[in-house]
Amino acid sequence: MSALGAYHRGVASSQSQRELGFAQRSGSLPGRLTSGRSACAPMTSPLGPCSGPAPFRAQCAAASGRAAIRPRRAAAPIVCQATSSEKMTVAITGATGLVGSRLVAKLAAAGHKVRVLTRNPASARSKLSYPGLEFFGPSEWRRGVEGASGVVNLAGEPIATRWTEDLKKSIKSSRVGATTAVVDAIKAAPADRRPGVLISASAVGFYGISSTATYTEDSPSGNDYLAEVCRAWEAAAQSASSVGARVAILRFGIVLAPEGGALGKMLPVFQIFAGGPLGSGKQWMSWIHRDDVVDLMIEALSNPAYSGVFNATAPKPVRMSELCSVLGNILGRPSWLPVPDFALMTLLGEGASVVLEGQRVMPARTQAVGYRFKYPDLSDALRNLVRNN
Ligand SMILES: NC(=O)c1ccc[n+]([C@@H]2O[C@H](COP(=O)([O-])OP(=O)(O)OC[C@H]3O[C@@H](n4cnc5c(N)ncnc54)[C@H](OP(=O)(O)O)[C@@H]3O)[C@@H](O)[C@H]2O)c1
């Protein structure tokens, strides 16, 4: 199995389906709006007033009810979007990944229509098997985007692997390339069938690394390689606003999920080394439970206040030593034995920087806009994740 294949652990398991209550559902996806509020505030936008098909008009009407929460940095006015209680059609890149598979499961369980934009439809079909899913290969992304109410962009070469020069190029080009492809598809859609919103992933690596600074969405970008990747990635996404789409960029912290990502890698390391801080232990870990990152994306799809940049990190970041101590307690393993840098460098090469160095990031705008974290505390998050594993 390739390194890339090994990292793709985000398969929607039957366990996930059960957790989400999917198995109890009839399996029919309504795919239609069930409600719409009557008052639609006058909207000005490069796309003009909402004149799209019925679902879009109803979404537009509903949007006016959410005007109370305003982002601090205003962005392009919104044309059409759904509220969280209405049925959406969401096109997703990177849907087969650790985060995407959970997003697909949750959207499908709630009766939303999901279109999977993938590099490989056959492989994606084998990983995601919910009734009503549609799959679109690279040459079909335009068709997959047209008529969707929103797009979520998660695609990118995994970074927590051994970095070679070629891989570093691919880490950047895969993100910028997939984002450009999906933004081009949004731009190419006829105005009355154009998605109203793009939710695009970025990472807290945007800020660079520091053991002393605290970063919010207003902080400047860092000077290292990952910061440069994030800037290019975000700029590609932001360009969708030129045709009136609302763009929300979510800078993900370390997404905690037992099947993969940092926690998925740490759990076996803990087993081998009897647990303990990775590296110095002083590095900051700005983490988020996978359910919160998924809920945040679903909220951002339907709530027009989500425009601009939002940190997708829990409000209580911790140092690595604390994360290991909490994890050790929950696993009933000692957590005093540090895992030396060289062991991780052997395993992950330069990619070890993802866990050996970090940054303290606060979700200032995310909280200001009203998002309530289901798991603000690390111990609750880890207990939930480890017990449900
Ligand atoms: N997980 C984290 O802790 C974390 C933290 C910060 C940022 N992020 C970012 O959030 C996004 C989603 O994270 P994730 O953990 O769910 O990612 P993931 O599990 O690695 O999945 C990413 C998806 O991107 C697609 N992909 C993989 N390699 C690609 C390539 N070379 N070119 C184009 N597409 C490629 C794959 O979908 P198909 O095979 O279906 O095309 C894959 O399922 C990623 O962009 C990641 O960088 C994640």
TrEMBL record:
Organism: Pleodorina starrii
Chain's gene name: PLEST011303
Record domain NAD-dependent epimerase/dehydratase: where: 90-306
Domain DUF1731: 339-385
Pfam families attached to this UniProt entry: DUF1731, Epimerase
Superkingdom of the organism of origin: Eukaryota
UniProt-recorded name of the protein: TIGR01777 family protein
Gene3D superfamilies with a match to the protein in the record: NAD(P)-binding Rossmann-like Domain
